[in-house]
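Observation: inputs received (chain + guanosine-5'-triphosphate).
Thought: call the complex predictor directly.
Action: predict_structure
Action Input:
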Amino acid sequence: MSEPITNPVFQRAAFLSAAPELAAAPEDSGYEVAFAGRSNAGKSSAINAICHQRGLARTSKTPGRTQQLIFFRLDDERRLVDLPGYGFAKVSLSIKQRWQQLMERYLERRASLKGLIVVMDIRHPMTDIDQQMIDWGVAAELPLLLLLTKADKLKRGAAASSLAQVRKAISNAPVPIQVLAFSSVSRIGLSQAQDQVSHWLGL
Ligand code: GTP
Ligand code: MG
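Observation:
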């Protein structure tokens, strides 16, 4: 199988900064695309796959470790953002409230944010908290892509039925929402995801 032809700007992606609060984020100019999702869903792996880099965004088997906005620079005016994972059980209420406030502020106020990718495990998508994230994205009038990742773990029929279930769940949304089966391992959906990100970044 030949490698998809991607914009070389992805390969030049590099860590820029980590921000524990919105005030610490890089200047709000240019274009940004953010990745949200439950802890362990595969956000960091998706960023690495899209950028063709193994160790760009740190992946981990211990969910919910990073509670910061992680910014990756593609060029002077373009960034990808790895948002803190959600849905992990063993954290205090105050950490959950901090997370919620950080997310809401970021999604609502960040002018350079041009699109939101909600990463969900294709084997158990659309939990309550995923729905909440989608609702915030819709409220902030952001274009949305739901990335159903770890598709390599399902047979084709099961993946198709999960995709159909998610499409049905969002069919009443006030704006069209895209849904894509994806895998950082087998690269299912990778070129479509790259195309969407490139489009949002004005590439
Ligand atoms: P947090 O940063 O903790 O919120 O997690 P995350 O959403 O960034 O998940 P991460 O990318 O670290 O992946 C979590 C685990 O799932 C790791 O062990 C990855 O190797 C694995 N994983 C991620 N994507 C895929 C995929 O497409 N297929 C398979 N089989 N495993 C994956
Ligand atoms: Mg991560």
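Thought: report the result.
Final Answer: The first strand starts at residue 14 and ends at 19. The chain has six helices and seven strands.
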